[in-house]
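Students often ask why we bother encoding 3D structure as a string. The short answer is that it lets us treat folding as translation between two languages. Here is a chain of 68 residues written in the first language.
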Amino acid sequence: MQRVARVTEIIAASPISFDEAIKVGFERANRTLRNITGLRILEQRVAVENGKIKEYRVRMEVIFVLET
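And here it is in the second language, the structure alphabet:
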């Protein structure tokens, strides 16, 4: 059986944590994409405002298998 996968990149954010930002991104991708097989976290950043962390951001690849 041959399979073909595709990779799409998304950015997600959360005011709580990096883990929460990953969950937010995954849950949103899962509503649109079928057959997700994995995620790859490419980058983590924080937004700072008035000397405090305002938001955690992740840039990630979503890997999913294309239907035949």
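Translate back mentally: The chain has one domain: 5-65. Keep this in mind for the problem set.
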